[in-house]
Amino acid sequence: MATLEDRILGEKLQYYCSSSESEDESCEKGKDDTEDHRPKSLRGPSCAARPEIRGWEGSSVNTGPKGVLKDWQRYKQLENEKREEQERERLQLIKKLSLTCQSERDAEREKEEDIEKDLQEVLEDDFLKEYMRKRMEEMMSQTNTKPKFGKLLHLKDGQEFLDAVDKEKRGVTVITHIYADGIQGCEAMNGCFQCLAEEYPQVKFCIVEASSAGMSRHFERSGVPALLVYKNGNLIGNFVRLTDEFGEDFFAVDVESFLIEHGFLPDPSLVPSLATSQPVQDDDDDDSDFGVD
């Protein structure tokens, strides 16, 4: 029987086995019996199964700093390549959509140009022009029932001024210039009214002296030239001391633009050209084959 010292130092019988079968069995049995009675701290390490060794696949992973850096560089390279590929696909898609939109826009533009060309050909027809002009004249004659003046009216006193406003037909615009002798700008305004009265015969242009209309001395010195605009008996425009607006010397076009801007005169640019155009002359009669010898 092995002593404690033998168990600690190890007995040869525990680690030696004979080549014979009986010795092997006794050795294994003695070893098992001995190990069964030893404490766990004194038992030898158990035999673990060795891992299966696989064949070399041709590559290895380096987990050192250089390997990590190389893996990171490869990762960034793949990311950049993926981003560039996505950018190329996006540009191709944008180009495709742009070409599609451009084609549709060109087709719409060509269609509009064709329609405009056809419409222009129709409007340039002489027969159609004459028909439209006559029709426009008929429409304007039916709606144009206002009286025509065509000249400048000189009012003598305040009563004539009141009658010129109150006794006029509804819808007629009455524009009156209040002037004073010896005041700069009043003479120029009277000349402008003379021209405008002939150009706008449906508007009633009047002039009256400030003293005859009952104006004060202060108004004669500081308020003229003055314009009063009436329609349907109501004052719709009141402008005093117009030399501050036009200066001391001005022309009829300046006053005309001023009145058009404030809506007291019709704008000639808004009148259709067919209403003011001359009738189309037919030259076929001159080229007739039937002549008088």
TrEMBL record:
Origin, by domain of life? Answer: Eukaryota
Record domain Phosducin: where: 55-270
SUPFAM superfamilies listed in its UniProt record? Thioredoxin-like
Residue ranges, compositional bias (Basic and acidic residues): 27-39
Q: Which GO terms describe its biological process?
A: regulation of G protein-coupled receptor signaling pathway
Q: List where this protein forms a coiled coil.
A: 69-125
Q: Where is this region: Disordered?
A: 19-68, 273-293
Composition bias, Acidic residues = 281-293
Keyword annotations from UniProtKB, A to Z: Coiled coil, Phosphoprotein
Which CDD domains does the entry link to?
Phd_like_Phd
- Matches recorded under PANTHER family: PHOSDUCIN-LIKE PROTEIN
Q: Which family does it belong to?
A: Belongs to the phosducin family.
Q: What is this protein called?
A: Phosducin domain-containing protein
Q: Which organism is it from?
A: Ornithodoros erraticus
